[in-house]
């Protein structure tokens, strides 16, 4: 009975972790940025204060124009139904916010791309690892194999660690590597009333929750594997 409960909750937490990882991986809302100022690309017909909204993820970096409204820190401006129908997108790997491939010197751009390259590799490894772990657990269930349960649990823990590194590296990117302060200073030279508001998006927020469920599922499956091994003796 206890073993069945452990398997059930392990599978439930694992499914949540996998789902959250895949959503965080596949959606482009790790970073949300709002640029406000008279130099914004927003059309003149846009009411209120003009702004350009940026959001990026693993695959794409997109931006669209509009007006700020009452709250310039609101995340709802980035919701699908609130976005402008005319939206520009580029590959996030080659042009992560706030860098553009043709607008920065080669040294800073190359350093940023190398850093993002490591982040990309960790992200892909995390996704691959969690998929492999899920496959092992699915194979373990019909045969009650303690080896597969232990292997799947261990790999779920590895996936959680990898995604933890992904989250930490992205925080370092936003806080240090992206050099948002210098970007803001450069934009203010051409547009004195320029202001930049940056926040983490819901894709980023889902990743740590997925880490928690992945680690929890991994520990449960390790315990399940140990219990099956002890009962088989």
From TrEMBL:
UniProt keyword annotation of Membrane present: yes
Domain of life from the UniProt record: Eukaryota
Subcellular location: Cell membrane
Membrane topology summary: Multi-pass membrane protein
GO cellular component, one term: plasma membrane
Transmembrane segments: 118-143, 155-176, 202-224
Record keywords, A-Z: Cell membrane, Glycoprotein, Membrane, Myogenesis, Signal, Transmembrane, Transmembrane helix
GO biological process: muscle organ development
InterPro entries registered for this protein in UniProt: PMP22/EMP/MP20/Claudin (IPR004031), TMEM182 (IPR026763)
PANTHER family: TRANSMEMBRANE PROTEIN 182, TRANSMEMBRANE PROTEIN 182-RELATED
Family to which the UniProt record says this protein belongs: Belongs to the TMEM182 family.
Protein name (record): Transmembrane protein 182
Gene: Tmem182_0
């Amino acid at each position: 009975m206890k073993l069945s409960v452990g398997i059930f909750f392990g599978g439930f937490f694992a499914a949540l972790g996998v789902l959250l990882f895949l959503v965080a991986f596949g959606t482009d809302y790790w970073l949300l940025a709002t640029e406000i100022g008279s130099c914004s690309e927003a059309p003149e017909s846009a009411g209120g204060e003009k702004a350009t909204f940026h959001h990026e993820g693993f695959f794409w970096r997109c931006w669209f124009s509009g007006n700020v409204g009452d709250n310039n820190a609101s995340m709802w401006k980035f919701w699908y139904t609130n976005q402008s129908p005319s939206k520009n997108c580029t590959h996030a790997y080659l042009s992560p916010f706030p860098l553009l491939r043709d607008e920065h010197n080669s040294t800073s751009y190359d350093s940023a791309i190398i850093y993002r390259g490591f982040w990309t590799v960790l992200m892909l490894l995390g996704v691959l690892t969690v998929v492999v772990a899920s496959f092992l657990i699915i194979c373990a269930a019909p045969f009650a194999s303690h080896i597969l349960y232990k292997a799947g649990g261990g790999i779920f823990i590895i996936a959680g660690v990898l995604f933890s590194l992904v989250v930490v590296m992205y925080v370092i990117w936003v806080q240090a590597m992206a050099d948002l302060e210098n970007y803001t200073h450069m934009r203010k030279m051409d547009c004195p009333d320029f202001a930049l508001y940056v926040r983490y998006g819901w894709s980023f927020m889902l990743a740590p929750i997925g880490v928690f469920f992945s680690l929890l599922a991994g520990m449960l499956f390790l315990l399940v594997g140990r219990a099956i091994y002890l009962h088989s003796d």
